[in-house]
Prior knowledge:
The protein contains 5 helices and no strands. The protein is mainly α and 152 residues long.
Amino acid sequence: MYNVDKEKENFFSFIPRSIERLIYTTLVGIIVGIITDFFFIEEIKIQGIFKRDKDDKKLLKNNITNLFKDIKMRNISFIIIVSILLMISAIYLLCFNYVYPYSQIEWIKSSISIIIIMQVLSFLRCLFETCLRFLSFITKSEKIYKIAKLLD
């Protein structure tokens, strides 16, 4: 395959053209993470119910029941929204590949490389956070531990 400049196309020649897509993918990933966090109940909320209502069993049961109803509604709405987004994405991809049939290979290579890069970056973030926590335990520094908690 040859590109526009009539230079020989190799496997990694798509990388300079994919940097913008990597930035967009990162931004979309952050936005999706924020939306996902909105749909799911935090562990702190559950712990708060148990701490606050541990003496009154009837109130505890009522609050847990309400929490489960809330969780069920959030899960159902999350599934509906994700299904709609998947259908829109599939239609977009089908239309794009129909209009630009010769860019399919580059999109596949680009998508696989972006997925690998995102996974490696996620692993490095977790490794960095773990190293900070380990360092905070060794030095008995609460400040380093709080910095590691900020990365969570």
